[in-house]
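can u do me a favor
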């Protein structure tokens, strides 16, 4: 594939071209939220300037334009995930709301004999909704162990998967460790056992192409803001056969077929899940972000990230006092670590003074922190627009901090 011209690419992202604390910004907090290309900002701006109205009520031209833009974005997402039909693509606020929507549908399906299988590396968004579901229905929450390398323990998976497993919910990529999980194989095994399968794709979509048909899952969620689109919107993919029957999540306008005081009937999917006026400009922005990524090319993006990962590996191979957490060879460029003698939040603050933005803390994965016996980590998470020089600046920044504290 055509290699990315990173300097050219960086000019597409206004937020990357600024100084912070008197230093050029080095933005390494992409797993928390990614920056936005100008094309996304322009698409949203143009939408508001020229096409804004409410959707699906078009007695007039702007209503039609808004509806076309909104539904066009839905079809762009459909193509992005290789879903079969737009009935399978539901707009939500983000991955969190998406998992809640899916879990909500299980409240009348599960009982004390059922089990919900998740893993020890899940984000709280893929733990708490299932824990609540278990508490309400009497079902049991089971947890796949994580190895010292930060991979899913496949023996633990096989031991705990059974015909009692009603739901299998798993992250495709760990936000804290960067580990890429073998979800295709695990989803296949879970389906074989008769479970519904849910994939948290929040950290996968920024780094790799995600094909829901190849994955074979029943549901998948992701958030726009991590994939270079705006905040406030995300997606639930659900298999069409399930979605038209899946329990509605919120009720009100837009999602109904017919309302009377005797009772109400609902629309088919996706509209049955979209109560009220949706995030229209945000949908347009997400559609544009996907077009932008397609323009760069998935292969070129992966190649650029591989270069960054190699540089990270060179540095971590010999860095006294630095302890990476999550050392799988199959990962996206995310480095969680501790530095001897330093609290992660101090590492974050001292890097920020040098213009380097990382995240510190538990990364919404408290059980995983407990698994590795740390209260938190510092995490540098990279995107295709980061440069090898920025990797160097980051590690040199850590060396500076170590020298400062050695004195
Ligand atoms: N799952 C994973 C793996 C995540 O990394 C995140 C965001 N940190 C979420 C779910 C939740 O996404 P959001 O906050 O956008 O709803």
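np, heres the sequence
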């Amino acid at each position: 594939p055509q290699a990315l011209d990173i300097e050219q690419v960086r000019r597409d992202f206004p937020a990357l071209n600024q100084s912070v604390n008197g230093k050029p910004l080095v933005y390494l907090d992409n797993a928390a939220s990614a920056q936005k290309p100008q094309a996304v900002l322009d698409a949203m701006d143009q939408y508001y300037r020229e096409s804004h109205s409410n959707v699906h009520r078009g007695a007039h031209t702007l209503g039609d334009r808004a509806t076309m833009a909104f539904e066009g974005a839905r079809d762009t997402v459909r193509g992005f995930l290789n879903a079969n039909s737009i009935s399978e693509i539901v707009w939500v606020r983000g991955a969190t709301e998406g998992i809640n929507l899916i879990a909500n549908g299980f409240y009348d399906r599960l009982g004390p004999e059922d089990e919900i299988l998740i893993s020890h590396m899940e984000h709280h968004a893929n733990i708490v909704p299932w824990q609540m579901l278990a508490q309400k229905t009497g079902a049991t929450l089971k947890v796949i162990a994580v190895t010292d390398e930060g991979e899913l323990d496949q023996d633990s998976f096989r031991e705990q998967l059974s015909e009692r497993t009603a739901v299998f919910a798993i992250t495709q990529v760990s936000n804290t460790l960067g580990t890429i999980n073998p979800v295709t194989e695990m989803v296949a095994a879970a389906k074989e056992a008769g479970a519904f399968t849910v994939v948290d794709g929040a950290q996968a979509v920024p780094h790799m192409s995600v094909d829901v048909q190849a994955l074979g899952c029943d549901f998948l969620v992701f958030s726009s803001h991590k994939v270079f689109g705006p905040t406030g919107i995300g997606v639930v993919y659900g298999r069409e056969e399930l979605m038209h029957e899946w329990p509605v999540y919120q009720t009100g306008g837009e999602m109904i077929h017919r309302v009377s005081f005797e009772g109400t009937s609902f629309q088919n999917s996706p509209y049955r899940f979209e109560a009220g006026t949706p995030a229209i400009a945000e949908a347009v922005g997400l559609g544009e972000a996907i077009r932008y990524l397609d323009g760069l090319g998935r292969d070129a993006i992966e190649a650029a990230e591989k270069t960054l990962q190699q540089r990270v590996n060179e540095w971590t191979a010999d860095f006294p006092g630095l302890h990476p957490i999550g050392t799988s060879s199959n990962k996206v460029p995310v480095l969680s670590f501790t530095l001897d003698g330093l609290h992660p939040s101090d590492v974050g603050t001292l890097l920020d003074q040098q213009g380097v933005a990382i995240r510190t803390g538990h990364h919404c994965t408290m059980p995983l922190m407990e698994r590795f016996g740390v209260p938190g980590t510092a995490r540098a998470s990279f995107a295709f627009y980061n440069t090898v020089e920025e990797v160097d600046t980051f590690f040199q920044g850590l060396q500076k901090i170590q020298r400062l504290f050695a004195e």
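The pocket of 4'-deoxy-4'-aminopyridoxal-5'-phosphate is lined by residues 94-96, 123, 125-126, 171, 175, 200, 202-203, 223, 364 (CB under 6 Å). hope that helps!!
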